[in-house]
Amino acid sequence: MAAHVGKDDLLSAGTIFCKFTKSGKFKLNITCLDFLAKYCKYKVWVKPNGEQTFLYGNHVLKGHLARITENTPANTGVVVFSITDIPLGFGMCMKTT
Which pTM was predicted? Predict the structure, then answer.
């Protein structure tokens, strides 16, 4: 349907998954989190005291981890979940499991 609308008249269509920067980099938006959480390979679950820390932009410490997917390699992207399986955001796993 969006193909039939002129460029000047189109505001948005669908969900924004990413942005391409002027230098050509691909940056994911947080709006795609619900879609990617279903299909992610590596997951991390944090305890309630670690949720607040993560949402304020700090690192998740080992004491905040409740569960982690088996055989998660180092320096790989993960989706961070709360204990109740609510996706909170994206992250990087810095140590292997």
Answer: 0.76
Asked if the model's pLDDT at residue 10 lies above 70, the reply is no
Q: What angle do CA 46, 55, 53 make, to 5 degrees?
A: 65
The per-residue b/e assignment along 3-18, b for 16 or more CB within 10 angstroms, e otherwise, is eeeeeeeeeeeeeeee
The span from the CA of 48 to the CA of 63, in Å, is 11
Pairing of strands 76-81, 43-46: parallel
Query: pLDDT (tens digit, 9 = 90+) per residue, 41-55?
Result: 999 999 999 999 999
Q: Which residue has the tokens 């080992």?
A: 62
CA distances from 10 to 5, 21, 32 (A): 6, 21, 21
Q: Are 92 and 78 spatial neighbours (Cβ–Cβ below 8 Å)?
A: yes
Angle at 93 between CA 25 and CA 36, to 5 degrees: 60
Question: Which amino acid is located at 18 in the chain?
Answer: C
Q: Which amino acid is at 65?
A: L
